[in-house]
Write a structure and sequence with these properties.
heterodimer, A: alpha+beta, Arc Repressor Mutant, subunit A, Glutaredoxin, 2 domains, 8 helices, 4 strands, elongated, B: alpha/beta, Rossmann fold, Ubiquitin-like (UB roll), 5 domains, 5-stranded mixed beta sheet, 39% helix
């Protein structure tokens, strides 16, 4: 059982010094040209699983860009998220091939199984983030779902619910 | 470190001799599709099985430097995508060329048994679902037989993570050939070959190059466009994963031709395996001296770096891609100036698509005459297509330009899955169009397709049967484009939004006849008023379907009916008088109070109130309620 305080600490997960250090390390690798901005944001996103405000500000300062420029880039690209993501990121491919072979019922089955609220992409317990992506390039296996980059092909609503059942079981037994 | 052309030939000979010494090679497909189906487990199991038997066998020796296979050795190798993703995991036995399909880890021992005794495992061979015929050899299976593979030639045949495997099949000979010519000669060779851009536009690569080559600049750049964003296309991914060195070699040739010393490969964020393989290939090429300073003693220096995209479809557009590499929002810039004059950081830049670049080593090695002997006069060479949708054999196919849709869908694709009827072929993704069966004999080349109102685009070919609603597909593409519009041009940003609105209205059953005219009007305006290819082609899926499938639109707006039975908003539920016992259970369960009647007599549904939830269908014990299209 986590107290409110603990969970706050975990969510913030990072104090400012930590952020600046991490950003500095990435800047060292990629340089301070603006062309380094996207790779640095990618690395930060990998570390924090999203881009906290402190990170954006720190990157802006390190690259001597305005926070607006950094924010503009971070919001332009679909890969970047300004909201914390769930432990499991589920991507449902809705490319043409997947769409034609029924990706929407699969998407709906996932949302129902994990109890995702309408209009949200991450569940309340931050366990799952559900996204649709335009094409994962595995059209031969349509419809395709990835869970934290593991590819599941030829999905049906029943099959994906079984996979989620297994994940849930694992989660609850570890908790 | 390779110092000259002779060194390349040495590596080639050494490697091929080592291969000759092995009794057999087992190639396990390690493309994204087969990995998802468990091919790595198959690989592990094969490896374990080989070790267990202690058959004087070296496993994976080709991956390790300087290790030699023992005589009679068998090697298990992970290969790139074979293209026949539907049948994966795929395992190929060389030198016989036997292909096993849908292989499971538990099949490993039978495969090795058969290999040792010189048999084949019949149950794992490809069985043609149409004729029942069994094919032991890969090149006899219709899916492969009617293909002509040039850029996919090495995919699934060599180990993509071993530079020597690439050199052994003639790799880097094209680059060596280029370096032995003057750069003008290289440009001319590509001009003569009439190689046209495979990324969709079809612009002659040589013409683009000669512009960049004639610019005076202290620095020029080559960019490989691997931002394959078209939903339904995955040939670039397969090439980058299955034959990464061919892309690097193509970039070297292009770099030498225009005088660039630096190259970037811009890869989609969604392709992690491609990124990994490319990075490995680049570092190996550097080790072998095929990238870096004074390559093969020619004085030419060139290096390549991978840039990962961050998820924006519009970055497939040249100027947006450049903006993205520069660290900005990926928004297109007005042309001219064209990137060939002023591109990355204002320097002359050539951007070629992955497939275009992968053609170059072959053109240089075998000459432009050879290249022109394939395909049609105005579109020479081959084109890869990602064949997907309701077709029996989905996968990656490569055919000479000018083959018909019929040949690709029926001969190679094996026809419609489940014995259904072909309704449409969507070609070219969100920039392309939907073609009816009338166009089955249309040759697949740049110009014929453009005349038919579609385009090759990047080569996505999605087959649709009668259960696909064309209006819904048009809405799907518009939704995609609307999401991906960068927002710079008003007509693209607002126009696509309104087109999507109208299409949504139509699939919801609220469309009118005027809506169809409005779609055309807005569509034509978006085409004229947008800066880049995304906006200019955005209305294509709608306009082409409005022309080719007008009846289906009319059914939606006039008869309020979806002929394919897909559109939820147009579904109607009806109580069959002869089956209804008048129990009233449906009326009690209906959340919208749309059902009424007297107990003992047939009930009726008020279509105005019905919310099409289907609750009544589920509760009716007499199966008296049916969905009507």
């Amino acid at each position: 059982m986590t107290t409110l305080e603990q969970s706050v600490v975990r969510d913030e997960g990072l104090n400012t010094i930590n952020v600046d250090d991490n950003v500095a390390a990435a800047v060292k690798r990629y340089g301070t040209n603006q062309s380094a901005l996207i790779p640095i944001l990618q690395e930060m996103q990998e570390q924090y699983r999203y881009l906290p405000k402190d990170v954006l500000n720190s990157v802006a300062e390190a690259l001597q860009l305005s926070p607006a420029t950094v924010y503009g880039v971070a919001t332009f690209y679909a890969q970047f998220s300004l909201e914390p993501k769930g432990k499991y990121v589920i991507k449902v491919c809705d490319g043409t091939a997947c769409h034609v072979r029924g990706s929407l019922p699969v998407y709906e089955a996932i949302c129902e199984r994990v109890g995702l609220e309408k209009g949200k992409s991450t569940t309340k317990n931050r366990r799952y983030t559900i996204e649709t992506v335009s094409c994962l390039g595995a059209c031969g296996l349509a419809p395709v779902v990835t869970i934290n980059d593991k590819v599941y092909g030829q999905m049906t609503p029943q099959a994906i619910v079984m996979i989620l059942d297994m994940l849930e079981e694992e989660e609850t037994s570890h908790a | 470190m390779l110092k000259n052309r002779a060194d390349i030939l040495d590596v080639q000979r050494e490697y091929n001799e080592a291969v000759k010494k092995t009794k057999a090679q087992i190639l396990v497909c390690a493309g994204t599709g087969c990995v998802a189906n468990g091919s790595l487990l198959v690989y592990d199991e094969l490896q374990a099985e080989l070790e267990k038997r202690n058959l004087d066998i070296t496993i994976d020796y080709l991956l390790e430097e300087h290790e030699q296979a023992d005589d009679n050795g068998i090697a298990a190798i992970k290969s790139g995508c074979h293209g026949f993703c539907e049948q994966g995991p795929l395992v190929r036995i060389e030198p016989e060329g036997i292909l096993y399909t849908k292989v499971k880890p538990e099949d490993a021992s039978s495969i090795i048994d058969a290999l040792v005794s010189g048999d084949v495992v019949e149950r794992l061979l490809y069985h043609d679902p149409n004729t029942g015929e069994v094919y032991p050899k890969e090149n006899e299976i219709p899916f492969y037989k009617y293909q002509q593979r040039v850029v996919l030639r090495h995919c699934g045949v060599i180990d993509p993570e071993d530079i020597r495997a690439y050199i052994a099949v003639g790799g880097y000979e094209g680059a060596a050939q280029a370096l032995s010519l003057t750069s003008e000669d290289v440009v001319n060779e590509v001009l003569t070959s009439n190689l046209r851009g495979r990324g969709g536009g079809g612009f002659p690569a040589g013409r683009k190059w000669s512009i960049a080559a004639s610019q005076e600049a202290d620095q020029k750049y080559i960019i490989c466009n691997g931002d394959e964003g078209d939903p339904g296309a995955f040939m670039d991914r397969s090439i980058m994963e299955g034959d990464p060195h061919s892309v690097i070699e193509g970039m070297m040739i292009a770099g030498y031709a225009i005088g660039a010393s630096k190259g970037y490969i811009y890869v989609r964020a969604e392709y992690p395996l491609a990124v990994k393989r490319l990075k490995k290939a680049i570092s190996d090429a550097r080790k072998y001296g095929l990238l870096g300073e004074n390559i093969l003693g020619s004085g030419f220096s060139f290096d390549v770096q991978v840039k990962e995209g961050a998820g924006a479809f519009v970055c497939g557009e040249e100027s947006a891609l450049i903006a993205s590499i520069e660290g900005e929002r990926g928004m297109p810039r007005p042309k001219p100036p064209f990137p060939a004059v002023s591109g990355l950081w204002g320097k002359p830049t050539i951007i070629n698509n992955v497939e275009t670049l992968a053609n170059l080593p072959h053109i240089l090695r075998r000459g432009s005459d050879w290249f022109k002997s394939i395909g049609t006069e105005s579109s020479p060479g081959t084109k890869t297509f990602a064949l997907t949708g309701e077709v029996l054999n989905t996968g990656l196919v490569e055919v000479p330009m000018g083959r018909t849709i019929n040949e690709v869908v029926f001969k190679i694709g094996g026809g419609i899955r489940g014995g259904g009827k072909l309704k449409a072929v969507q070609i070219g993704g969100p920039s392309g169009g939907c073609l009816t069966e009338e166009f089955l004999d249309l040759p697949l080349d740049f110009d014929s397709l453009r005349q038919a109102g579609a385009m090759i685009g990047s080569g996505g070919l999605v087959v649709m049967d009668e259960n696909t609603c064309i209006v819904e597909v048009a809405r799907f593409f518009m939704n995609f484009i609307q999401n991906e519009s960068c927002g710079k041009c008003v007509f693209c940003r607002e126009g696509t939004l309104h087109m999507l609105d109208i299409l949504q209205r139509i699939v919801d059953g609220k469309g009118t006849l005027e809506d169809l005219d409005l779609l055309v009007e807005i569509g034509e305006t978006v085409q004229i008023g947008s800066l880049c290819g995304l906006g200019k082609t955005a209305p294509n899926p709608v306009l082409s379907t409005l022309e080719n499938f007008r009846d289906e639109y009319l059914a939606h707006v006039v008869e309020k009916r979806c002929p394919a039975g897909v559109c939820q908003g147009l579904k109607r539920y009806q109580i069959m008088d002869d089956k209804c016992k008048g129990c009233g259970l449906c009326a009690r369960k209906c959340p919208a109070e749309a059902i009424s009647g007297k107990v003992g007599k047939p009930f009726v549904i008020d279509p105005e109130k019905c919310i099409k939830c289907g609750a009544c269908v589920t509760v009716c014990k007499f199966k008296a309620i049916e969905e009507v299209a």
